[in-house]
Amino acid sequence: MGGGPRVPYPKHVWSPAGGWYAQPANWKRNTAVFMGVIIGITAFTWKLSGELEYRHKMPEPGSFFPSRYWSRQYKEYEAERRAKAEGKSDS
To answer: Which of 42, 67, 75, 91 could form a disulfide with 71 if both were Cys (CB 3.0 to 4.6 A apart)?
Structure first.
């Protein structure tokens, strides 16, 4: 299995991917570091998106939309709505 022996290749050719039969010794660490970078960028983008999201019309109460859990504007709106509801129930 494996397609036979390795074929001869030119040693003077440079490749950004490592060339023929590349298997860097620290590939696991490189993969873990890069995955950490990807997760960090994704988390930053997610947080920034939640802070900058703006809705001109709020959704109906009880309707489902995923960004309700991380949108800053919606969290503030819900807090105001709860405060108004508690104020009315105290009166």
So the answer is: 67
